[in-house]
Amino acid sequence: MYAMEAIYANDECIKPDNPTPSTNYTGQRSSKRSFYLGVILSLSLLTVFLLVGLITLSFFYHNLVEHVSAEAEKRDLLNKNISAVSNQLSSMTKERDLLSKKTEELKTNKQCPAGWSSFSCSCYLLSGSSASWDAARKDCRVRGADLVVIDCTKEQEYLSKLTKGETWIGLNDEEEEGTWKWVDGTPLNLKYWAHGQPNNGGGNPKWGEEDCAHIWTDGKALWNDRSCRDSLPWVCEKIP
To answer: Out of the domains of life, which is the source (predicted)?
Structure first.
């Protein structure tokens, strides 16, 4: 009996008065807490960055929308201007075509006086007599014309067929020696002078001052200067 009580007495658990938690367990809890705090902080920072990004993106998007809208307005205005210019060009083209048609009709329907020949837009009259250059011009002006002004190659070719021999044309350098002008005041640009001409008589007193021009049909029509007092046929020109 006493032996069994001794055994039970030895089997009783003896607990300390102040139990101390395990050091490993405490460290694990602290580590987890730090981890969670780090995650929360990271998520908070990420949220802030995302919010800032969204605000920035919204700002740029707003500016982009305004820019696109402004460009669209410019495009619409440009299209309107292009349309207006296109309409104006179309109208001007129609006016040009109408004017060209009327011009052709005038060319076709123009009437030269009896005895005058027609070429291009002008009427021409070859005189049946001879006179000085001044007298020839006076006769043309009485007829509402003037001595012929040659301003294109085709007209020169036409006159080479119309005239025979030497014939006065509306060209002189009476105002200033060497400065040849047509009777309408235009300077001489197109030239068909014969070789060595104009030479103002070559200094020979026999020919005197040669200040007036005539067309010389001898094989091919060329020009020569001659004394304005000489008597030659002439060609008058006028627009009907």
So the answer is: Eukaryota
Residue 14 falls inside a structural domain? no
Residue span of the structural domain in which 87 resides: 25-109
pTM surpassing 0.70? no
> Do the bridges between strand 220-226 and strand 212-218 make them parallel or antiparallel, or are there none, so unpaired?
antiparallel
List C-alpha distances in Å: 57 to 44, 48, 54.
20, 14, 5
In a domain, 1, yes or no: no
pLDDT tens digits along 24-33: 556 666 777 7
Cα gap 177→216, rounded to integer Å: 21
Q: Average pLDDT of 37-49?
A: 87
When mean pLDDT is compared across 16-25, 119-128, 202-211, the lowest value belongs to 16-25
CA distance 52 to 47: 9
Q: Which two tokens stand for residue 101?
A: 């048609």
